[in-house]
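quick one
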Amino acid sequence: MDIGALKGIGPKTEKIFKNTGIMTTDDLISYYPFRYDVIKRSDISKLLDDDKIIIDGLVETRPNVFFFNKKMNKMSFKINIGTHLINVVIFNRGYLKNKIDIATKLTLIGRYDKMKNTIVASEIRFGMLPNIPVIEPIYHQIGSITSNQIRMFINNINDFSVIEYVPDYLKEKYKLIDKKEAIIDIHNPNSELELKKGLAYLKYEELFLFMLRMNSLRLNKKNKIGLKRNVDRALVDKFINGLPFKLTEDQALSVDKIFNDLNSETRMNRLIQGDVGSGKTIVAIIALYINYLSGYEGALMAPTEVLAFQHYNNLKKIFDGYNINIELLSGSLKQKEKKDIYKRLEKKEIDIIVGTHALFSRDVVYNNLGLVITDEQHRFGVNQRSNLKNKGVTPDILYLSATPIPRTYALTIYGDMDVSSIKTMPSGRRNIITYLKKNSEIKDVLSLMYEEIKKGHQIYVIAPLIEESDKIDLENVNKLEEKMTSAFGKVCKIGVMHGKMDSKAKDKVMEEFKNGDISILISTTVIEVGVDVKNATMMVIFDAYRFGLSQLHQLRGRVGRNDIQSYCVLISDRETNRLDVMTKTNDGFKISEEDFKMRGSGDIFGVRQSGDMNFKLADFKADYNILLKARDDTLYLIESKKIENYPKLVKLLDDSINLD
Ligand code: ADP
Ligand code: MG
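structure w/ adenosine-5'-diphosphate:
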């Protein structure tokens, strides 16, 4: 059913959904919650400061509302929870003032400030809590459509269709429920057990399809003969020597491997992995050059338009003076321009083509494609439906990944794909010195910041992450802004960025930070991906314990982008293993290893970290044990040829980007 036809959805909402690719009710039902709230009365005596709290009681005093400006107000009152009174503070609900009277029954959800005996509420509900706990799904907001609205719309869906990919015998083996039931359960769990069962099916299916794809790639490769080329190594070395820098040891090693792969008869199927900034791109470019020298076309595929454009510019610059035709196939091109590129590709007038997965849309026919490089493993996505039409040979394949995985795990996940790891960072890069501080040590933090400001450097400050409510996020950002302004307001300009700003306002702040007008940027985690400000040398993260390890690593990676010493300050009153790891190492491989080790420790109600491989529910580190099962199961299916009994799976493999 078209999303616009669903009960409750007007033209405006329809448009927002459709702009994000949710066209039908089936699409909406596969938009999964990223977290759950367990609505159950908190035992206040057991709460720590800043813990999440859910409490009900009777209003004791009439609310006071204080207006900051047109958009912001703060309401406060006292509530009697039976044993004692607590203060309640809630932002931007001034309009409820008249509904809240003495003895009104209320439920409040928020954070508990133990010192002040105050709940900073993000949600207020009329009525008392039910006696049994309620599990409530929380969705990432879509544009202005809130989690609550999404939940309501999903509940309005009467029926939907699914394709169940997991074969029956495996469902039996793991006692998995039907997919349809699983989907209903994760949107509307009646109990923790139901939620677990729902997640079990869906996670397994995701990892099963992923491993099916990986294993089929690997088994296909065995009987695939690739291109034999005869490239003069001296020409390659000449190109490398002409670069503005010397390759690191690991880069040079990767280049050697690629050179041998390309010159040998077996088809190349290699993955290069390394942290962001480790210099994978230049290795890819050298591979493209080798491929060019042997007379074939090369394609470089990036996950986003922005990255594709960046690669394109980079290639243009590096190959300036070489007679190499490079083109960008961008989604924003006019139909006519696209057609023109298609034509030239077919006629072999383009040597290197850069783009998103549009490179593999059905309209594109290559003349003699010799090498395909995919940045950030894009092609592993099982949902990509397209086909590569290549008139020539089977191209060699190179993948780039910024999600480093230690060797032992990589072997499992990538099968016998060849893996090169770039562990050494380009010379001149220094380790980012990482400090762990408590909130009570804020003075130390401010003086560390001041040192950087004095040097003319810039600083990111990440406000506490509270996913349940934009309003609390806003409050945190505002509080921090006050703090920072009182410390640095006279010395430098401070900028603020948060989820409630529209993209124009965000762009403006980002621009001011990039050109150095703003010295301190306070932000929730919405800092755009790919932000690269070389002069930023310090990352300060408040309530760092709330972040996952790879998130912390990624945030820290925004500084240390040149040869100036950079710093990261993690502020947390709670000590965690993760924070320790962060202070001890900068090495993405080690950090990844720790993530694997802590697997299984994530509880089902926790926030999902933004997935490394674009899984919707599974996390290949936390759910590594499921992945191992999926690996064995899919290997068996393919090797025993049993897969032929499952046309759905065969079709899926045929449909995913096919480089064969
Ligand atoms: P990533 O691995 O994240 O793709 P890039 O390839 O974008 O990293 O490299 C990051 C930066 O380091 C780029 O500006 C690049 O020009 C530079 N760089 C790459 N290799 C070296 C090197 N061997 N020496 C110095 N700088 C390098
Ligand atoms: Mg890159």
